[in-house]
Specification:
By secondary structure, the chain is an alpha/beta fold. The protein has three domains: about 160 residues, Rossmann fold (3-Layer(aba) Sandwich), CATH 3.40.50; about 230 residues, tm_1862 like domain (pyruvate-formate lyase- activating enzyme), CATH 3.80.30.20; about 55 residues, Nucleic acid-binding proteins (OB fold (Dihydrolipoamide Acetyltransferase, E2P)), CATH 2.40.50. The chain has 13 helices and 21 strands. The N and C termini lie far apart (about 45 Å). The chain binds iron/sulfur cluster.
């Protein structure tokens, strides 16, 4: 049963926001300066979206923002537990912060997110990283104002990692990172328990937001100039199963498609076992739903898929993607692939390459298997050596790079519409934007184009991006 945080609880948190704001106003009145906060996010878009809420709370508390840990009065690391290297990075950062805090003892260090929802990690932080002031898990995000206030009031070691199935909290402040695009969480948690994945243990059971709350949020975003939204959930195809409303994800998509002002709708993530014809039809018939889909297949071997508890076969995956391509021929597909799952042999890996070649994804997110304590797969022995796994990983990239380049080459000479993001991250002399299928297009242009939909003629294709020039004689909107 989904637990919704009551209005009185949200009001209580607002009262802590007010108290912190008073503290910050007093400081500003005394010094003429503002207390500053720094946030850093690890992991997925869900975490990015959670950080926007944390920044919303901090902003309402009166904090300004900085990227410099030497200037920050409050630091919040929103952590990820999906792979070991993200955890190691956080521990590395905490080591550096220990030295900074020695010279700035009033600094408040907060650690939140999936990593700290694991008991063994929290114990490690409590014993070895005692300079961390506030630790709160994924289920306690909405209580951040109260936890921060406790710490600012002198309470030592504020820890809130309640082990529960999770909550839905509506009405907390959000500070969006973009004026044109927004992530909108439609559900939280996961019930799938893939054998390698820690997410169901740290984010709790699936719980859907009421459609009314989602639609109101998107209408409000559209009223404030947002034109592109991404609906977020660990498995969006399960949306609505836990609600009293008679609604599924396709129904929700149609309702979002009807909202004035929204031009592009994306969604992540779809689980292949739940992806079906109704959603394909909805994608094809809704004019704002982008022709792009992220559908993680993870491995090509049926035996490995069974060991992963994915509950689909290679043939079923190929069949669903073939049906999708037939109905939406210009669909751009992306996927996640895990190389080196413990029971994967070289023969199994060939099945993975076979899926790449048959589906021809536009791009893939590939990872070497990372052992996660507490998951069933963590107990398995490895069939392959580390060297073999790395060789396979490199081969996977080679095969995919060739496919990605081939797919991008097909755009050369074509005129496409992009939403301009701003200056390019790879070439400061260029601007950058994305096509509706999320392909990156770099082009020479002025910063004033940021946030606009423009037409660009593709001049050159690369593996991961396209180059273009402003299209002349085309209507640029
Ligand atoms: S569907 Fe599987 S991989 Fe995705 S979050 Fe749930 S358990 Fe993890």
């Amino acid at each position: 049963m989904t637990q919704t945080v009551g209005k009185d609880e949200i009001e209580k948190q607002r009262s802590f926001v007010y108290k912190i704001k008073q503290l910050n106003s007093n400081y500003s009145a005394r010094t003429g300066a503002k207390h500053l906060a720094l946030t850093e996010t690890y992991g997925c878009q869900q975490n990015e979206n959670d950080t926007e809420r944390i920044r919303g709370i901090l902003s309402e508390c009166g904090y300004g923002f900085t990227d410099d840990p030497y200037k920050a009065d409050v630091i919040v690391y929103n952590t990820c537990a999906v792979r070991e290297n993200a955890e190691q990075k956080v521990f590395g950062r905490l080591g550096i912060l220990k030295h900074i805090k020695e010279s700035r003892p009033n600094m408040t260090i907060c650690l939140c997110g999936c990593m700290v929802q694991q008991e063994h990690i929290t114990e490690k932080i409590k014993s070895k990283y005692r300079h961390v002031d506030v630790v709160f898990g994924t289920h306690a995000l909405w209580r951040f104002p109260e936890l921060l206030y406790q710490s600012l009031s002198g309470k030592k070691e504020v820890v809130d990692i309640e082990d529960c199935d999770g909550y839905i909290a509506e009405g907390m402040p959000v500070m969006r990172s973009s004026a044109d695009k927004a992530w909108v969480s439609i559900m939280y948690g996961c019930n799938n328990f893939c054998s390698y994945c820690i997410v169901p243990y740290v984010r709790g059971r699936e719980r859907s937001r009421k459609s009314e709350n989602i639609l109101n949020e998107i209408k409000d975003l559209a009223a404030h100039g947002v034109t592109e939204i991404t609906l977020l959930g660990q498995n969006v195809n399960s949306y609505g199963r836990d609600l009293d409303e008679n609604i599924d994800f396709s129904d929700l998509l149609k309702m979002v498609n009807d909202i004035d002002g929204i031009k592009r709708i994306h969604f992540v993530t779809s689980h292949p076992k739940d992806f079906g014809d109704k959603l394909i039809e909805t994608m094809a018939s809704c004019d704002k739903v982008c022709h792009q889909l992220h559908l993680p297949f993870q491995a090509g071997s049926d035996r490995v898929l069974a060991d992963m508890n994915r509950r689909y076969t290679k043939a079923e995956y190929l069949d669903k993607t073939a049906r999708l391509k037939k109905r939406i021929p210009d669909i751009a597909l992306s996927t996640d692939v895990i190389v080196g799952f413990p029971t994967e042999t070289n023969e199994d890996f060939k099945e993975t390459l076979d899926v790449l070649r048959k589906v021809e994804f536009d791009n893939i997110f590939s990872f070497i298997y990372s052992r996660r304590e507490g998951t069933p797969a963590a107990k398995l022995d490895f069939a392959l050596s580390e060297d073999e796994i790395h060789q396979n990983f490199n081969e996977l990239l080679e095969v995919q790079n060739e496919i990605s380049l081939k797919k991008n080459k097909a755009y050369e000479g074509k005129t496409v519409e992009i939403l301009v993001d701003g200056p390019s991250k790879t070439d400061k002399n260029m601007m950058s934007g994305r096509m509706e299928n999320t392909k990156i297009v770099n082009f020479p242009g002025s910063e004033e184009l940021t946030g606009k939909y423009i037409k660009v003629k593709i001049t050159e294709a690369h593996t991961w991006s396209l180059n273009g020039e402003l299209a002349h004689g085309e209507e640029n909107v």
